[in-house]
Amino acid sequence: MAAFESEKAQFDRDGFVIVRNLLSSEETELLAKISRADVNLAETAYGREDGKGAVVTLAVRNELQQDYYSSIVKSQRIVKRMSALLGDEVYHYHHKLILKEPRVGGAWEWHQDYGYWYNNGCLTPDMGSCLIAIDRATEENGCLQVLRGSHQIGRINHGPIGDQTGADLERVAVAVERYETVHVELEPGSAVFFHSNLLHRSDQNTSENPRWALICCYNTKKNDPYKESRHPGYSPLDTLPDDQLLNAGHHHLEQLTQQSSG
What CATH architecture is 2-226+236-249? Predict the structure, then answer.
């Protein structure tokens, strides 16, 4: 945990930490190939309209499976870092892929993840997410935006905006004035770890380039939900050694190749 002390100080102050090259180039290329060849992913993805009617496509997984996405979720390099940042053992809460396509990918309105997760019986915001860029994330293709330090505001009430749920617009307007907006531009394989109370959003993708991302979400053991929801309660996370991640990716890609040819 000592290796992450400086990152934890930044996380506590800013509400987020950017980690360059979290995945190697080979690991990232595998993730891109697998996600785009995954018929099940395409079939289970669904859309959420933003406030202007544009659609963001996503696929959510509440349970870990025998696939590359789950292997990344369980990888020690992510789990150990998230545990250090949140100060407790963490477990898999859910993971999702965001599939923001060129020209048509919609925006995400300003929100806090805890604005949703609070209603799932999580008493405290001791929760966090790790967003990993599959494609290069830029302002032009609708990269993540965060308000630096806004996790210190505490939970804000949320309500419907289009098909999405967004933070109270009156408080968001003041927060945007008082906190610095950071566009989290990432190269493929780089990531941002962020606190569940951090206000964040993204613009529509107006570019010719896709912006796909994998988001791994974690809760802390001490914050085990007091009631059931679609996301799981605490169970120990069987972490995956980092040197096994490539093998998991190659195995998943081989399975997809066999399915497409058979």
Answer: Sandwich (2.60)
